[in-house]
């Protein structure tokens, strides 16, 4: 039986993000793993659409991969979620699909459609994402997740927190870890100087703490926040002595794994997401307590101290590949023929 799989990519904006990278990497692989099926990918009108290599004539285009732009904003928040639920129900009535792969939700017709929900992080449980999302997450979201056929998580810490928060069975979750693109790797003969931070400027990323730590250590800091080109990104990673990862909350910590793949050691906030990267097999991370903030002033003294110590002798990313992750996702899709 041919599965008709709808993949909801409407949460992604045109700017780089770990969630968008994951979606693109999976879409380069799932058509071959699900060669008898059809994948219909929905992009927001203002989300930038698919990368060129996934469109017709591109290196990773496939006959069973089709793209559609839908009239919804990637920045719609709760409104986008409500609109998507309404539109996807209508879409199912007009041309039934058997599977829905979506970020965080919505759950659509679970008695007829196998819903696979991806959780990248649980920021909305920690005060990030607005009051409405926080209240919904703590009161009703667990009920929504329970209606999904399975919940895909990008790292074990998300499963553990979700099980504790909503009382769901661990078997309801499938760990499909993030990975690092093969285009990000160490470069020979590149002089390393100064430190680097790769992140958007938003509260949970605590980018100001990296600025403060570099200044206190007397080191030059390079800031990268919106780089899509892997060759340029690789040169940034490869030319730094350290990556600073001061984030207060992550689901996985993609930039940590990317830096390690480029041979760059990392000073990272000691929290479960960063610890997961080490548990998954990474080497070269120095864990320090999280930074603190008083008004607009950041302090991260433990990172300053770590910058003065010799870097780790061994640096390596987790061994997980996007090929392996795509196989886990494909197996989750194939495990049931709803519809």
Low-confidence stretches: none
Q: Whole-number average pLDDT? A: 93
Could you give the distance between the termini?
A: 10 Å
Number of helical runs? Answer: 12
Architecture overview:
This protein is α/β, with parallel strands linked by helices and 339 residues long. The protein folds into 2 domains: 4-179 and 322-334, Glycogen Phosphorylase B (Rossmann fold, 3-Layer(aba) Sandwich); 195-307, Glycogen Phosphorylase B (Rossmann fold). Helices cover 33% and strands 18% of the residues. The chain contains 12 helices and 14 strands. It has helices at 18-27, 30-33, 78-94, 131-139, 141-146, 156-166, 207-217, 230-238, 254-261, 272-279, 301-307, 322-334; strands spanning 4-8, 38-44, 65-70, 99-103, 114-119, 150-153, 173-175, 195-198, 221-224, 242-245, 266-269, 285-288, 292-294, 297-299. The strands form 3 sheets. The chain has a 7-stranded parallel beta sheet. The chain has a 5-stranded parallel beta sheet with strand order 9-8-10-11-12, sandwiched between helices. Helix 7 packs across helix 11 (301-307). The N and C termini lie close together (10 Å). The model has no long low-confidence stretch (mean pLDDT 93).
């Amino acid at each position: 039986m041919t599965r008709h799989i709808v993949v909801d990519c409407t949460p992604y904006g045109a700017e780089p993000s770990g969630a968008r990278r994951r979606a693109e990497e999976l879409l380069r692989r799932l058509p071959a793993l699900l060669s008898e099926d059809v994948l219909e990918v929905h992009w927001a009108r203002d989300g930038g659409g698919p990368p060129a290599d996934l469109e017709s004539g591109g290196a990773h285009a496939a006959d069973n991969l089709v793209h559609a732009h839908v009239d919804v904003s990637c920045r719609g928040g709760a409104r986008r979620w409500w609109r998507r639920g309404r539109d996807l129900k209508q879409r199912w009535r007009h041309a039934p699909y058997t599977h829905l792969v979506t970020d965080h939700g919505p759950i659509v017709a679970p008695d007829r459609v196998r819903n696979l929900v991806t959780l990248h992080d649980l920021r909305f449980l920690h005060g990030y994402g607005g009051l409405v999302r926080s209240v919904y997450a703590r009161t009703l979201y667990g009920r929504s997740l329970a209606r999904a056929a399975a919940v895909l998580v990008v790292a074990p810490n998300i499963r553990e927190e979700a099980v504790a928060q909503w009382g769901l069975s661990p078997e309801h979750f499938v760990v499909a870890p993030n990975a690092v693109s093969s285009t990000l790797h160490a470069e020979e003969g590149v002089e390393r100087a100064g430190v680097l931070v790769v992140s958007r400027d938003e509260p949970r990323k605590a980018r100001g703490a990296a600025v403060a730590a570099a200044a206190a250590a007397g080191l030059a800091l390079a800031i990268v926040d919106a780089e899509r080109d892997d060759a340029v990104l690789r040169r940034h990673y490869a030319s730094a002595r350290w990556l600073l990862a001061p984030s207060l909350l992550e689901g996985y910590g993609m930039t940590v794994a990317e830096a390690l793949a480029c041979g760059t050691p990392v000073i990272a906030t000691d929290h479960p997401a960063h610890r997961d990267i080490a548990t998954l097999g990474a080497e070269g991370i120095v864990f320090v307590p999280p930074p603190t903030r008083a008004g607009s002033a950041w302090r991260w003294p433990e990172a300053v101290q770590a910058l003065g110590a010799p870097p780790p002798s061994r640096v390596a990313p987790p061994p997980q590949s996007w090929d392996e992750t795509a196989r886990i996702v494909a197996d989750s899709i194939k495990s049931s023929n709803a519809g």
